[in-house]
Amino acid sequence: MSTTRAVAVLVSAVILVGSGCTGPRPIYNVSNGVISSSKSNPTMDEVGKAIVRAGAALGWNMQQTNPGHILGTLHLRTHMAAVDVNYDTKSFSIRYKDSSNLGHDGTNIHSNYNGWVQNLEKGIRTQLSLL
Question: What is the pTM assigned to this prediction?
Answer without folding.
Answer: 0.82
